[in-house]
Design brief:
Largest interface: A-B, 24 and 31 residues
Low-confidence stretches of chain B: 1-17
Shape of chain B: globular
Order of helices and strands of chain A: HHHHHHHH
Structural class of chain B: alpha/beta
Low-confidence stretches of chain A: none
Mean pLDDT of chain A: 70
Number of strands of chain B: 12
Strand content of chain A: under 5%
Helix content of chain A: over 70%
Oligomer: heterodimer
Helix content of chain B: 25-40%
Number of helices of chain A: 8
Number of strands of chain A: 0
Strand content of chain B: 15-25%
Largest sheet of chain B: 6 strands, mixed
Bound molecules: adenosine-5'-triphosphate, magnesium ion
Distance between the termini of chain A: 30 Å
C-alpha cells in the first residue's frame, strides 16, 4: 500500500507531492532498517509516541519496505510506453482513468518480480526486529546458541533452512502471479 | 465572445468551405530546441472534409495533427475547434491557458489513429474498443458492446473479439485501432501514417478500411500519408507541407496532375518513379 502510494507520488505531476515522496523514499532507503527500528521503538517515545514492540516493528518494516517498493512501482510506471498514455488521451480518458484502466494494470505485471523480492527481503528483515526485544527466529536461535557454544553451526543452519521454507511459498506465489499476468502481453 | 472575421485564404474559398470550419489553424509556430518545425501554418478543415497531408520526412506533418489532439502545444498562433480556442479557455471574455477540464471538453471532438497502433495489450480486442465508450462516454455495457461489435465487424474482425492484441497481425491491430477511435464518434479523425509500420502486404487491407469509412462517414479526416494513390482516392483536398510551411494545396487532381511548385514536383517524382 505504502509502496503504491509513494510510487504514484514519485510520478505525480505536482512538484510538491513528487518532492515529499522522494524525500521519504531517500530517507528510508538511505538509512539502515536497524536504525529505523531503534528510532521508532526507542526514540519516538521521547516525543510521546509510544509503540508496543510489535507495532513498532510493523511500522518500521512497513515504512522501510514501502520505500523500496515505491521504487519498484515508480520504475514500472515509467516503463510503460508513451504510446499508451497518448492513446488514452486520444480516447479522452481522465488522468485518473488512464492510470486505473491503462497504466497501472500493465505496470502491476512488471512490479510482480520486484514485489516478490521485497516480500522475501521483508521476511528476512524480521530478524532485526529481535533487537527490540520481540522474539523471532534468529533471536531464539541466539539464545540457544548462547546456551551451548557447540550448537552454533547446527542452530544457524537450521535457521537458514527455516527461513528458506517460510520464503518458499512467497517465491512460488510471486512466480505464479508473474505467469498469470504475462497473458496477452508481448509486443503490441 | 464573437468569432473574429476570418481572412480569406485558399483553404476557405474551396467549395466545401462555405461552412464554418470544424478546426482551424492560424499562424501556428513550433520550435523544438533550435529547430523551427512549424513556421506559421494556416489551415481550415471543413466539417466532413477529407484532407490528405503529404510532404517529406521532418516537414512537420505529425506535429500538426498532434497539436489538434492536444498532444503537443503550439508556441504561438491559435488553433480553434468549432470556433473555440483549443489551448485557451475564455474567462470573463479574456483568454486564459486551457486547463484539463477545457482540454477534455475539446477532445470530445477529436480522435486519432497512431502509426504504432498503441492498442492496450492487457485487454481483449473487444475491451480495447468498449473501454472508452463505457468509461468516457458513459454508455451502458450493452450499448458499448453493440457499437464495438458492429464496428469490429465492419473492419473485418468480428471473429477476433476475445483475442489479445499480441495475437493479431499488424494490419489487424491497426484495424482494431481504427475501430477503437471511430466508436467515440469524433467530428475530426486524425490518421498519422497508419500504414508505415506495416509489412507491405498488409497495407492494402488497412487503406481499404479507411476508404470505406471515408465514404460513409460525415467525420472530417486529416490523413498524413506517404501513399499517394490512397491520398488521391480518399481526399477532397491535398496539402503539401514543406519545411514547416504549406507549400501548395489543391484538389487531388491539381496536386498530382498539375503541381505548380518545383518542390512539389520533385517530391512527387520520387514516388512516381518507385
Ligand atoms: N518531441 C520532439 N522533440 C524534438 N524534436 C522533435 C519532436 N517532435 C518532432 N521533432 C522534430 O520536428 C521535426 C518535424 O517532425 P514531424 O514528426 O512533425 O515530421 P513529419 O513530417 O511527421 O515527418 P515523418 O514523415 O518522418 O513522420 C523533425 O525534424 C523531428 O525530428
Ligand atoms: Mg510523422
Amino acid at each position: 500500500m505504502i509502496a503504491i502510494i509513494a510510487g504514484l507520488g514519485r510520478v505525480s505531476k505536482f512538484t510538491f507531492i513528487r518532492k515529499v515522496s522522494a524525500v521519504y523514499v531517500e530517507l528510508f532507503r538511505g538509512t539502515s532498517l536497524l536504525v529505523q527500528l531503534f528510532w521508532v521503538f526507542f526514540a519516538l517515545p521521547a516525543f510521546g509516541i509510544q509503540f508496543t514492540a510489535f507495532l513498532a516493528s510493523v511500522v518500521a518494516l512497513g515504512l522501510n519496505y514501502g520505500a523500496y517498493g515505491s521504487e519498484v512501482v515508480r520504475s514500472a510506471i515509467l516503463a510503460i510506453p508513451k504510446g499508451q498514455t497518448e492513446a488514452s488521451i486520444a480516447l479522452n480518458m481522465t488522468n485518473f482513468q488512464r492510470m486505473r484502466l491503462v497504466i497501472l494494470p500493465q505496470a502491476f505485471r512488471m512490479m510482480l518480480p520486484g514485489f516478490g523480492n521485497i516480500s522475501i527481503e521483508l521476511l528476512k528483515g524480521t530478524s532485526l526486529v529481535s533487537l527490540i526485544t520481540l522474539t523471532d527466529l534468529t533471536y531464539k536461535g541466539l539464545i540457544l546458541q548462547n546456551a551451548n557454544i557447540s550448537y552454533t553451526m547446527p542452530v544457524f543452519t537450521t535457521l537458514l533452512i527455516v527461513y528458506f521454507i517460510i520464503a518458499l511459498p512467497l517465491i512460488f506465489t510471486a512466480k505464479k502471479l508473474e505467469k498469470r499476468y504475462a497473458k496477452g502481453v508481448a509486443n503490441v | 465572445m464573437s468569432i473574429p472575421e476570418r481572412k480569406l485564404t485558399t483553404s476557405n474559398i474551396y467549395p466545401m468551405k462555405s461552412k464554418k470550419p470544424i478546426a482551424s489553424y492560424e499562424n501556428i509556430k513550433k520550435t523544438y530546441g533550435d529547430a523551427e518545425v512549424l513556421k506559421g501554418v494556416d489551415l481550415n478543415i471543413a466539417p466532413g472534409e477529407k484532407v490528405a497531408l503529404i510532404g517529406p520526412s521532418g516537414s512537420g506533418k505529425t506535429t500538426i495533427i498532434r497539436m489538434l489532439m492536444t498532444l503537443e502545444q503550439p508556441d504561438s498562433g491559435m488553433i480553434k475547434v468549432e470556433g473555440k480556442p483549443l489551448w485557451y479557455k475564455e474567462v470573463n471574455g479574456k483568454l486564459a491557458p486551457a486547463d484539463e477540464k477545457h482540454l477534455r471538453e475539446m477532445r470530445k471532438n477529436i480522435g486519432m489513429v497512431f502509426q504504432h497502433f498503441n492498442l492496450f495489450p492487457h485487454m481483449t480486442i473487444l475491451r480495447n474498443v468498449t473501454e472508452a465508450p463505457v468509461h468516457v462516454l458513459g454508455l451502458s455495457k450493452e450499448e458499448a458492446h453493440r457499437r464495438a461489435v458492429d464496428m469490429l465487424e465492419k473492419v473485418g474482425l468480428g471473429d477476433k473479439l476475445d483475442a489479445y492484441p499480441s495475437q493479431l497481425s499488424g494490419g489487424q491491430k491497426q484495424r482494431v485501432a481504427i475501430a477503437r477511435a471511430v466508436v467515440m464518434q469524433p467530428k475530426v479523425m486524425l490518421f498519422d501514417e497508419v500504414t508505415s509500420a506495416l509489412d507491405p502486404e498488409l497495407v492494402g487491407e488497412v487503406l481499404q478500411v479507411i476508404k470505406d469509412l471515408a465514404k460513409e462517414t460525415d467525420m472530417a479526416m486529416i490523413l498524413v500519408t506517404h501513399e499517394m494513390d490512397f491520398a488521391r482516392d480518399v481526399a477532397d483536398r491535398v496539402i503539401f507541407l514543406h519545411d514547416g510551411k504549406i507549400e501548395e494545396e489543391g484538389t487531388p487532381k491539381e496536386i498530382f496532375e498539375n503541381p505548380k511548385s518545383e518542390r512539389l514536383r520533385t517530391f512527387l517524382s520520387r514516388f512516381l518513379k518507385g
